[in-house]
Amino acid sequence: MSLLFDPASLVQILLLGLASGGAYALIASGMTLVWSVTKQINVVHGDFLIISMFGCYSIYLSLRLDPYVAIIITAPAMFILGLLIFHFLFKPIMDKSGGLTPFVAFLGMAYALESLLSLFFGADNISTVSQFQGYKLSLGSLRLPVTYLVALLVSIVVSLGFHRLLSGTDFGRAVRAIAENSAQASLQGINVKRIQMLVFAMAFVLLALAGSLLMPIWSINAFMGLSYTLFAFIILAMGGMGSFVGSLVAAIILGLLESYSNYFLGPALAPTIPYAVFVLILLFKPNGLFSTK
Amino acid sequence: MKKSYLYLIITAALLFFVIAPVWIDRYWLQMLIYVFWMVYLASAWHLVLSGGLFSLMHGLFVGAGAYTTTLLWLHLGVSPWLGMLAGAFTAAILAIAAGRLILREKLTLLAFAAITLAFSFMGTFVVSATPFLGASGGLSNSFIEDNPWNFQWVGDKPYYYIILIMVAGVLIICNTIFRSRLGLYLRASAENSRAAAASGVNIFRTRMSILVISAVLTSLGGSFWTQYANYIDPMHTIGPITVVSLAMLVLIGGTGTIWGPVLGPMIMIPISWILGAKLGGRFAGIDMLIYGFVIIIIFRFFGKGIIPWFKEKYAQRQRSP
Q1: Contact call for residues A82 and A209 (beta carbons, < 8 A)
Q2: With a CB-CB cutoff of 8 Å, which residues 114-153 of chain A face chain B?
Q3: Residue A93: its chain B contacts at CB < 8 A?
Q4: CA distance A72 to A77
Q5: Using an 8 Å Cβ cutoff, are A237 and A15 in contact?
């Protein structure tokens, strides 16, 4: 019982939950951006998170660079990759077929990417050591891993930055116009395809960022991409499709739930709780917490 | 003229598959069993899609069939044939409970997909945490003897003919449903549910009926598989991965026709199987890489699926002199 109500460990769980929530938010916000301008779920989203993490891993192996430093290489690389994938694959399939087909067509790409990764890196779990991994911040009886705090802080800063970008700049106005009605936006002289392409590439940069932050925390393998995609999809539906704030809030809620249920229920049953709460929320708010409709 | 050709092709294909086991070897027979199992599940899943519901929870129904059959057999020695019925009953109850909860007018297609996805995850976690259900390691079926009453045979041929009969059965059921009043209601509620409701279609009852029918059919497929493979685990049975690839196969074949879910698995599974056999051993991963690209190319080329593409081409040729 004393363990149950130990305030220090409860606060610790709170912070760990916030940190993983922040990381989920980074992953989901890229998907939200892509959804809002293309009205498509990017099924390879999780796979590109894993790819950016494997990128960090290879940089670590070859150049001995810390994952936090590797971002200067992975971010531009992911940006270019995003532009290419959008231009040569995402856009053509999106134009050719409507409804759910692009969603499913990209599953094929997810398969291809996962096998490509396993060809290069094998099927085993990998993890990298960051310089900062051993450090723990001690506050009284609290001991917090620095890597988690960094993830939390960066995700807050990035979310605020994106909010600023979407609400305060011409680019942001164009994005919101397309999100509302892309045909109308195109009539107003906005180059819809260019904005979509840029947004798609920006989502990839966010993935590069999330990859660097998560590399010291998680161990990953080549076949995990699709499950992160599905998890991000659930965050999107819970926050309200296309709502940036919504996916942030939903991600934090899911992170906290995961962390607390892990503590109180044990690792076997804990994963069910976030999903149960998600279902409940959608039953009462079918369009999500912050729906635009 | 066109119709008679179609019947000729169907009869020829049926004859081919009935006599195929006489000369093909064990390896290809196993592939065909897997192909027909996927055709069966795809057709059952497509029923729900035709009502405008993108369900990712069908793994729960596969699991209901598989787990009920196996548990009754392992603990009480109940014949899997009866276990199949019990499994179907369990699946129907699950479908009714889930339907009561989530078949609501307000839920969009995507929200429905997300919720059913969550159900599938929750089911996987609960089964993985329950020792009675074999936890994450799964359950193995005990093989006793070559006995039809026990749904157990030494060779693969009996399983092949059973799944062939099941596929024929599910196709007849799908065809009957699509031609019936229920089929009409389904199409109406998929196309525009508000307009359908305004013209007197009871959307809830329509969707609930098709969900239960599809769940029962799916669970029979699950029971079959546990008898054939003698092994089930929560990840692959209940988890969303199988249903997600099923959805992909259906969309490759094309929706809105009973032949789409037949064609998708029949084309794609042999491709992946052959790639796996030729390349899987030496370069593990390359086979899936090529398979993935084949999928992308098919979608870039055919767009809405193979059968709708041919229908469109045929219609164009009819129009132009």
Answers
A1: no
A2: 114-116, 118-119
A3: 296, 299-300
A4: 9
A5: no
Give which of A94, A104, A133 is closest to A44, Cα–Cα.
A104
Collect all residues of chain B within an 8 Å Cβ-Cβ radius of residue A241.
Answer: 110
DSSP state of A214: H
Interface probe with B: pick from A275, A278, A290, A292, most Cβ of B within 10 Å: A275
Q: Does the CB of A265 have a partner CB in chain B at under 8 Å? A: no
Whether B99 contacts chain A with CB within 8 A:
no
Hey, are the CB atoms on A112 and B291 less than 8 Å from each other?
yes
Cβ pair A101:B299 closer than 8 A: yes
Whether the Cβ atoms of residue B210 and residue B51 lie closer than 8 Å to each other? yes
Across the 293 residues of chain A, what is the mean pLDDT of every consecutive 10-residue run? 61 84 89 88 90 90 86 94 90 74 77 83 74 68 78 86 86 87 84 91 93 84 84 89 86 91 82 88 86 62
Please state the pTM of the whole predicted model: 0.85
DSSP annotation of A86 reads I
Interface test with A, best of B248, B290, B309 (most A CBs within 10 A): B248
Q: Does B231 contact A at CB distance below 8 Å?
A: no
- How many residues can be counted in chain A? 293
Type of residue at B310: F
The separation between the first and the last C-alpha atoms of chain A, rounded to the nearest angstrom, is 46
Identify whether the C-beta of residue A24 lies closer than 8 Å to the C-beta of residue A218.
Answer: no
Find the helix or strand (DSSP H, E) in which A1 lies. none
Residues 239-268 of chain B whose Cβ lies under 8 A from any Cβ of chain A: 240-241, 244-245, 247-248, 251-252
Distance CA B135, CA B233 (A): 8
Q: Which distant-in-sequence residues (6+ apart) come within 8 Å of A153 by Cβ?
A: none
Mean of pLDDT over chain B = 87
Q: Could you write out the DSSP letters of every residue in A185-203?
A: HHHTT--HHHHHHHHHHHH
Q: Within an 8 Å CB–CB cutoff, is residue A279 touching chain B?
A: yes
Instruction: Give, for all 321 residues of chain B, the pLDDT tens digit.
Output: 467 787 888 888 888 888 888 888 888 899 999 999 999 999 999 999 998 898 999 999 999 999 999 999 988 988 999 999 999 999 999 999 999 988 887 777 888 888 898 899 899 989 988 888 888 788 888 777 777 888 888 888 889 999 999 999 999 999 999 999 999 898 888 888 888 888 888 889 999 999 999 999 999 999 999 999 888 888 888 888 888 888 888 988 888 888 999 999 999 899 888 888 777 666 666 777 777 778 878 877 777 788 888 888 888 888 775
Q: Nearest 5°: CA angle at A204, between A231 and A88? A: 105
**Cβ atoms within 10 Å, residue A175:** 23
CB contact under 8 A, A233 and B283: no
Burial of residue B196 (number of CB atoms within 10 Å: 0-12, 13-18, 19+): buried
Q: What residues form DSSP beta bridges with A138?
A: A143
